[in-house]
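Re: the request from the purification team.
They wanted to know what the chain is likely to look like in 3D before they choose a buffer screen. I agreed to run a prediction and write the result into the notebook, where they can find it.
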Amino acid sequence: MTEIVRHLPHPADFAAPPGPADLHRWAEADRVARPARLGRLRARLASEGVDAYFGIRPEHMRYLTGFILEDGEDRVAGNSGRFLISGDGVVVLADSRYRLQAVAQAPEARIEAATYDLAAIWPALVGSMGAKRVAVEAGFVSHQLWGELHDAAPEIELVPVSGWVEADRAVKEPAEIERIEAACAVADRALASILRRIKAGVTESEMALALEWEMRTCGAEALAFGVACLTGPDAALPHGSPSEREVCRGQVLLFDFGAMVAGYRSDMTRTLFVGEPTPRDLAIYETVAAAQSGCIELLAAAARGERAVPNGREADAAARQVIEAAGHGEHFGHGTGHGIGLATHEMPSLSHVASEEPLPSPTVFSVEPGIYLDKETGVRIEDLVLFDAGAGKLERLTRFPSEVVVVGV
């Protein structure tokens, strides 16, 4: 039987927000780590017989060069932030709006003036790096841009690649883990701060806004993604958006949210109960909690060296089989987890289509099984965990209680 928490968590139960010294230390850690990050990519280039890597993803740009575009800024930045890395050079494109920022944030890179016509400068750009074969992030370059680059320099071979930098980023450095943990603490405190405001009659939108305010004013530089606050039948929408639906006693209230701290993100889901849980909802909650525990116990055994490190499919199955045994297999449609860091969703994946390679280590990912009954109710419990087989560690970074929490009484 799942324990019911009667004494609500308090914001002071969780770690304080990071201060200026923490932010400076993390920035310095990135600066020191960057040559090794570039070295690993250059080793991959050499092994694949490729001369340069062309990237457009903002998180890759930040990880490899230090240049930062804020969330959503890449949609209006044109070609600014796109980059080329060769065996001995780094080029970052920046137009007049971003030039000074790029110079300051990517001092080891050559900053080249960006135009809205990338194809026009492409031959000179790759030529300046002596590149004949260029790896391109094929999953993020449009068919149109690919054709324009090919036509501009047909003698340059464009090599489609996927997952090179993503795989490197899946293995987390200590300072990256610290930032994810700090983002988790911001989210933990934020939820604890609004618990006593939850009562019958408030709306999903009101509670989502309250949670966002607490995160933004208590340590988050931004949200990791838009806050989901869903009550009653709306909780059956795994990625639903808050509406003007009012919270009612006897229903669940599901929050899915995350904070961003120094570029790194958290992601957590808590399903609370407004008033005493109904037998149906409590039974579903206990099944989801058991499914999450099954996955985490598998991972913990691997961290202790009691079994081989599982792959993402095996970790997913450990949770899914509990839900299927309870007769809810068809009500759990998404994967059990995903990696997190500079992006909310990144490698590794815990799902039935995940890689069959053992999970990387050290890494951070979510464990988030759920059960959703259409137009009735939904329950999901999501925690971020640090998996570090080398250190024999499996640690929950999300500290907010995962037991049954009753609010609005």
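For the purification team: Residues 132 and 155 are 7 Å apart (CA to CA).
Please add any questions underneath this entry.
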